[in-house]
UniProtKB/TrEMBL annotation:
It comes from the Bacteria. This is Deaminase. Transmembrane segments: none annotated. InterPro entries: DHFR-like_dom_sf, RibDG_C, Riboflavin_Biosynth_HTPR. Residues 2-184 form the Bacterial bifunctional deaminase-reductase C-terminal domain. It holds the Pfam family RibD_C.
Length: 190
């Protein structure tokens, strides 16, 4: 069965974006970039990876899930941000933009969709954001891969929106610290 991994950048205080949805304080360059980029190969948007000469094949995922707000970060320039993956965007009320023919937009229950995806053959499934979608899918998340950045936002979009869910145990499988200050924390549901 395929696994769902919530792989995301996060601040020390647990936010995946600031109060206005900004994430420009996260470190995109530094000694962490090569190691994390190789381990999670293919997680850069296709066009950006091609321009930078980054490999997109051979990574752990073949499907990416996003909420509308995460998807919309790249609009209008990147209407199909991860062309090398199957792309599923959960939305209730937004129309598919021009150029997004290979993106699946759905208003279906995310839990049902994820369970169907897990039952299919293929590589891992990457949940790349956002916090509201992660909260809905919390019981379906098999792995966490957190790129903990050495910044405090104080407020913003939390890793998991809302607090009305049951506790869940995860056990660490790896913690890698980089001189840049970024720490890759990896966990499996335990």
């Amino acid at each position: 069965m395929r696994k769902l991994t919530y792989y995301v950048a996060v601040s020390i205080d647990g936010f995946i974006a600031g109060p206005g949805g900004e994430f420009d304080r996260f470190l995109f360059e530094g000694d962490h970039a090569a190691g994390i980029g190789e381990k999670y190969r293919g997680t850069a948007p296709t066009e950006l990876a091609e321009r930078a000469g980054l490999p997109i094949e051979g990574g752990p995922f073949d499907t990416v899930l996003m909420g509308w707000n995460t998807y919309a970060v790249g609009l209008p320039e990147l209407p199909s941000p991860y062309r090398h993956f199957r792309q599923v965007v959960f939305t209730r009320g937004h129309e598919a933009p021009t150029g997004s023919d290979d993106v699946e937009f759905t208003d279906r229950d995310p839990v049902e969709v994820v369970r169907e995806l897990k039952a299919e053959d293929g590589k891992g499934i990457w949940l790349c954001g956002g916090g509201a979608l992660a909260a809905v899918l919390r019981d379906e998340i098999d792995r966490l891969a957190l790129k903990r950045n050495p910044v405090l936002f104080g407020d913003g979009i939390p890793l998991f929106e809302g607090r009305d869910y049951a506790p869940a145990d995860f056990r660490p499988t790896g913690i890698t610290s980089y001189e840049s200050g970024v720490v890759l924390e990896e966990y499996v549901r335990g």
